[in-house]
Fold:
Amino acid sequence: MSVREHGSSEKVVMYFGLFASSSCCALGYPCSDETLVLLAFRATCAGYFICNLVGLLLGACETSHHILRAGLLINSLSSWLVSAYWCVGFGEWCILMLCEHAFVAFGTMVLVHSNVHLHLMFTAAGSLVCYLARRQAAAQSYELGKFWVAGTVTVVLILVGGILYSGHSSIAFLQRKLALVSSLVTVSEKELVSVDSTLHTPPNGMRRSSPGTPTSTDVDGLELEECIGAGSFGKVYSATYLGKRAAVKIMSWEGEQLKRIDPLREAKLCLRMVHPNLVQAFDFIHRDSSSEVLAKRSWNEIWIIQEWCDRGTLCKYCNTPRFDETGLRQVKSIMLDVAKACEYLTLLTTA
Structure:
């Protein structure tokens, strides 16, 4: 049986790990005159180096997964040791720990994909306790420590930067989240009012403040519940439709707000799609307020009532590590279902 290779992003992170661990091993640790402390520090660096090297050589398997996790834990022990014999200032320690924890978070996301918060708590708690219980260092160690901190922070920043540009899906997802937060912080007051009026959650059984918006009482047998997701111009609610669980996708826009998307066409197309591998749509409602005399602005809204799907997302399912033949068969089954659905959509759009 052939050994599966790691993805390109995982390889990049392991290569940077080899560089960082060997660099720190060469730098040593100047904050203690005890030989055992220096040996312990270099042993942790060597341990992390070996875990990355073995994980790289073994390829993507369960054993490699456990070895890489052990390497991250050894790296955390290294930060404990550094904190216990710290000889420079508190500010320098905070900078180094911020870099170290950024590496722990990103490295765990890329290499082992799970328990990121536990790795962070393990590193942070131990480092803080060791720092509070640290020994007093000599003045000579303090002078050497300043140069050591500069070199170590540089190495760790190179490591973190390499992980950020590794192209891994989890890092890309995090970057998109940060970009979204940044866009929300810089949004203007006019844009904020527009978004709020578009995406405001309607109270169950009551009319929203926006003109021309249908309510749950407008549709026979439909009862809205909580919001379970949101996008750029709409939200998805859980609901009860004719006594059964359903999902309601609500898209709202004003005037010519939508240029490239036609929600009405999407709703009609959803009703035409009937396939076991596609989400089934039951009905849709379109409300246009431009013809209403009392409406001060043109308001459009589409409600698409769809099948309720509560078994999670494909992204979350795929992020769970699988190393046996059962996982491979599951992947083949999923891809076959996706291919069948795509074939159906191709025939539907060309008919």
About this structure: The longest strand covers residues 244-254. Residues 198-217, 291-296 have pLDDT under 50 and may be disordered. The beta strands are 222-230, 234-241, 244-254, 281-288, 299-307. The CA atoms of residues 47 and 74 lie 7 Å apart.
